[in-house]
Amino acid sequence: TRTNPDPKAKTSEAFTGFIVDADTPGVTVGRKEWNMGQRCADTRGITFENVVVPKKNLVGAEGKGFILAMSAFDLTRPPVACSAVGLAQRALDEATQYSLQRASFGRPIARHQAVQFMLADMVIGINT
């Protein structure tokens, strides 16, 4: 949460981490967002209006919340990237299988140049 209202404050020093219970007065939890390929990620918007948080709920030092959040991202970036590559590979596998089974004009659509280009673009996207 931004705890330094000065718009000129350094981002790295303007935020503080807190633990706040969802049933705290003034906390509104939004609807669950739809995360394609990440159904287990419970992503929601949270609104805080005049929420009072006791000092004991502070996470880390005051003004160090941004650094704390960024360090958490450092831990989650590799598995998220691996999941994205795995999902893309599965999509390519499914598309390839489908293109070999589905026929158009008397032959599998995998033999049509336009479909081959699409599959090739998928391969390039996965490998670069």
TrEMBL record:
The protein, known as: Acyl-CoA dehydrogenase/oxidase C-terminal domain-containing protein
One annotated Gene Ontology cellular component of this protein: mitochondrion
A GO biological-process term: medium-chain fatty acid catabolic process
Presence of the UniProt keyword NADP in the record: no
Entry GO MF terms: medium-chain fatty acyl-CoA dehydrogenase activity
Pfam families cross-referenced by the UniProt entry: Acyl-CoA_dh_1
Homology family: Belongs to the acyl-CoA dehydrogenase family.
Cofactor(s) named in the record: FAD
Keyword DNA repair: no
Species whose genome carries this gene: Euroglyphus maynei (Mayne's house dust mite)
Keywords: FAD, Flavoprotein, Oxidoreductase
Record domain Acyl-CoA dehydrogenase/oxidase C-terminal: where: 63-126
Signal peptide extent: none
